[in-house]
Design goal:
414 residues; alpha/beta; 2 domains; six-stranded mixed sheet; two-stranded parallel sheet; 8 strands; 44% helix; 11% strand; QatC; ATPase; Rossmann-like_a/b/a_fold
Amino acid sequence: MVVRLDTQALRRHGVQHHEAALDLLALAATVYAVDCLVPRKQAEDGWTRELAFEMPVADPALWETARFALERCLSFLSGDRWSITFTPRKVELWAPRREVPTPKPVQVVSLFSGGLDSTIGVINHLASTQDQLLLVGHSDTQTSGTKRDQEEVYGHINDTFSGRSELLQVHAGFDRQAGERTMRSRSFLFLALGVWASDVQGAGTPLLIPENGTIALNMPLTPTRTGSNSTRTTHPHYLELYREFLKTLGLDVPLINPLEDQTKGEAVRNCSDAALLKKVVALTNSCAKTNRRGHWVRRTPSIKHCGQCMPCLYRRAALHTAGWDEGQAYGLDLANGEVDLDGTSSGANDARALLYLIRRAPDRDELENRLFTNGPLEVGKRQDYARLVHTTLGELRTWVEDKGNPKVRGNAGV
């Protein structure tokens, strides 16, 4: 296995930083590789793995003080038991051959996946401030198409806000196809890239992580999906653990989710530049299963979304609130009966579970309890989180009522 990190892209941006931020990048790429290369089916319970490795770093004593916070963070994110040993790093991770460029000063850094939420977060910040903004994108062999998605969306953003932003795309991963496709630790690597870029700009440079509150909470649709079976990429508790970890390392990078108190529909409707968002919305990619095209009805290159995973269904309901939903933009149109709700295909599990949840119409108290089973939440915010999910279920219910065929509406009880 070869872990690859695009240091050329990093060099072009500049390398004035703490050694801990650079070590974090190398560590995060290694974590991602280990996560993807060890199949969960090898675990005793089919999910929770015992993962251990040795990591050379510039200051092992510093990393040892952060080890507990790091392992808690990783374990919450991936659902595994991690054990990392730190040894002295005897070589420079890179040695520039010529003068390193001074990075263009920016006030804020934002993660930029090419998805709908990250696009809204960037548009909102550029439209409401005069800040210079650095967008950080990540791509690797496991996530084909993400680099192109980012470039296409960014092209329109840069045309509208000329000279106000820069896109830094970094390839970081490893040289094999994954044996394990859950890839829970990818967000740890993505955050590490953002932390590095913020640290280059100086202490206190904020890192935006735009993700609507409902997806961040990612409430399990069924009791069997509790814990890390549901992704925790931007879960509030995960971000709090990550903040604690950074503080222990001495890295001053505020992590901010500007969409944490909004549903996806609210994020769409509240976007500061609706005309620009409407122009790029078809270029954004929210799908969790975009490469599984074998059973899609529509398979043209412009179709990026499966139409039956939870991110796709949240997306459709959100766009419907703005009058922008179009079933022909998806490989499968659930509303028109193209998803096999009666079969046994695992690909339709999200759609089945969602329609059943709409039918049950849980109240806010039940939603609050279900959210708590998916991870610790600040007591004072639990009712607000339940409100978010309840409002999202309302958006989904309205979409099904307005767009669903009789069978789909019947399954949802509307």
